[in-house]
Design goal:
alpha/beta; eight-stranded mixed β-sheet; 305 residues
Length: 305
């Protein structure tokens, strides 16, 4: 699904994977998984966010797959992974564990990068044996662990019950997004991207987000509304870097500050001036560079190992 609706050319066109596979999660949910790059290279796992797909990571995959083995998967109901009635943080953790088990050798380590709901997936899996076996380091991009609706600044009002109520109903709307029109691009840019985002970035994001089925978008909005993964943050013991855009309206920098304060092994906070919520698309080189740094520092394969 995601490949049919993503942009067809340029830096955000999805690269052709080395191989594709279907991974079955704990409850039988089927997940579309792509593997890019050389088999023996250091591994990177990419988990996308709400309403997105593997296409969201196109720029990172294109760069990293030259000398990394990059695994990207569609969260259940997104991209080419069929919808499942089971929506929740336990399901997200199950799915990540299943992908790690299916794509990495026993004991093999990888850097795991999660954007938005993908970062929440990592927090949900922090205590899981499969995650602890395979995670060498983590990158949390544009994400938070709780109070997502209350802290969102999508609605231009001061914090309080009115803003929270309006935000909840906007993000949880059952209305179909429809075709990608100039007005749709303008709305998406305002809500999810920085004011300086280039038109080709907005187009790439709009195509990906508008491809998410309305039923899936609504179901997962309810999960995010009630999200509380503060305990998971405190259990995320591997080296963890945090990235946030200063113009992020969906997960504002207050979330990044809370993550940095709670993480047992935070190895840096990167604030990107003027960048919104879609950091891997808005600042692709900077996000990719942070992943590379984590691989080099914590997950590079040593000769003779």
């Amino acid at each position: 699904m995601s490949r049919l609706t993503a942009v067809a050319s340029g830096p955000y066109a999805p690269p052709v994977p080395t191989r594709e596979l279907t991974v079955v999660s704990a409850d039988g949910a089927r997940l579309h998984v792509e593997v890019h790059g050389p088999d023996k290279a250091p591994a990177v796992i990419l988990a996308h966010g709400w309403t997105c797909s593997t296409a969201f990571w196109a720029a990172q995959i294109r760069d990293l797959a030259v000398d990394h083995r990059v695994v990207a998967y569609d969260q259940r109901g997104h991209g080419r992974s069929p919808h499942s009635s089971a929506c929740g943080t336990d399901a997200l953790a199950d799915d990540l564990e299943a992908v790690l088990r299916a794509t990495l050798a026993p004991g093999e380590k990888a850097v795991v990068a999660g954007h938005s709901m993908g970062g929440m997936t990592v927090m949900a899996a922090a205590e899981r044996p499969g995650f602890r076996e395979h995670a060498a380091a983590v990158l949390l991009c544009s994400t938070g662990s709780s109070r997502l609706v209350a802290e969102s600044t999508v609605v231009p009002l001061g914090p309080g019950r009115v803003r929270t109520w309006l935000t909840k109903h906007i993000l949880g709307s059952r209305a179909p997004l429809g075709p990608v029109t100039p007005l749709a691009r303008k709305i998406l840019k305002y809500g999810t991207m920085g004011p300086g985002s280039a038109p080709h970035m907005v187009e790439a994001c709009a195509r990906i987000v508008h491809a998410c089925p309305t039923k899936v978008r609504h179901a997962w909005s309810q999960v995010l509304d009630l999200l509380d993964l503060d305990h998971g943050v405190r259990e995320l013991r591997v080296p963890t870097a945090v990235v946030v855009g200063t113009a992020d309206r969906l997960t504002p920098p207050v979330h990044a500050a809370a993550l940095v304060a709670a993480l047992p092994n935070c190895v840096g906070l990167t604030e990107l001036p003027g960048i919104g919520h879609m950091t891997p698309i808005e600042a692709p080189e900077l996000v990719t560079a942070r992943i590379r740094e984590l691989v080099t520092t914590y997950a590079t394969i040593k000769e003779g190992a």
